[in-house]
Inverse folding.
């Protein structure tokens, strides 16, 4: 499995699709360990109930669909589908880099969209990476964090999965800037959303066994991984020294799990 520096996008994230994928992946694990109160998670009883619902939903619907999709979709087509949605995510990323005054990154994202949308045939081929333009998947939750807004309480949302108070509000901005929301034809819009969700879920199938082996309490494992990952992303991979990250989190990229889909490593600026 390739280790890739992310994002989530986050996104390729329509109202949290990156989070959705990670949350539903972990939801397959059994939660058997005792747990102690975490000050970052004052809503834990509610969150655990939602986590169980998400687990049942994934087992009944999303995981079987993702397995069928993986079985019938040739790898080159699968890769192109993912590239298409990654290209759309670069639009949101460009806006957020601009809002953070990261002008070089914003220009990089715009260049990626222009190249991949034209030479790359609507983003089906990631030409921009091959010409040396790295991918920076910034979202509005990261932008809020960049400007000093704290993460707030951890929240497990129905279907959408892991979030925080800050990131939940940030999704409003992600929805507004997502090019898919500009599609007025309901059938096309709904079809693309369904394809994006299944493709994203399929990317995490191979990682399920690792998660199950790593965690006795899958809920706590997911919560800690999510919060530490988001902290790292807000600080461009260099979180405050008072906030340490265990090596296990550094080895897991919750945005890009498929080993045969390479996202370029973003160089912290």
């Amino acid at each position: 499995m390739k280790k890739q520096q992310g994002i989530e996008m986050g996104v390729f994230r329509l109202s949290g699709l990156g989070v959705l994928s990670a949350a539903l992946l972990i939801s397959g694990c059994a939660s058997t360990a005792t747990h102690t109160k975490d000050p970052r998670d004052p809503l834990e009883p509610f969150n655990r109930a939602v986590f169980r619902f998400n687990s049942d939903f994934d087992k009944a619907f999303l995981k079987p669909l993702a397995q069928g999709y993986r079985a019938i979709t040739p790898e080159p087509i699968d890769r192109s589908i993912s590239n298409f949605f990654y290209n759309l995510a670069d639009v949101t990323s460009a806006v957020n880099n601009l809002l953070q005054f990261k002008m070089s990154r914003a220009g990089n994202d715009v260049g990626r969209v222009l190249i991949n949308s034209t030479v790359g045939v609507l983003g089906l081929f990631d030409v921009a990476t091959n010409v040396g333009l790295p991918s920076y998947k910034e979202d509005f939750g990261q932008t809020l964090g960049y400007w000093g807004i704290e993460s707030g309480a951890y929240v497990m949302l129905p279907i959408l999965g892991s979030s925080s108070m800050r990131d939940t509000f940030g999704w409003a901005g992600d929805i507004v800037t997502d090019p898919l929301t500009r599609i007025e034809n309901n059938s096309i819009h709904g079809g693309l959303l369904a394809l994006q969700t299944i493709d994203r879920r399929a990317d995490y199938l191979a990682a399920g066994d690792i998660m199950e082996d790593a965690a006795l309490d899958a809920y706590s494992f997911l919560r800690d991984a999510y919060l530490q990952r988001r902290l790292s992303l807000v600080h461009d991979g260099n979180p405050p020294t008072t906030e340490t990250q265990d090596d296990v989190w550094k080895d897991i990229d919750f945005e890009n799990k498929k080993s045969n889909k390479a996202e370029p490593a973003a160089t912290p600026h």
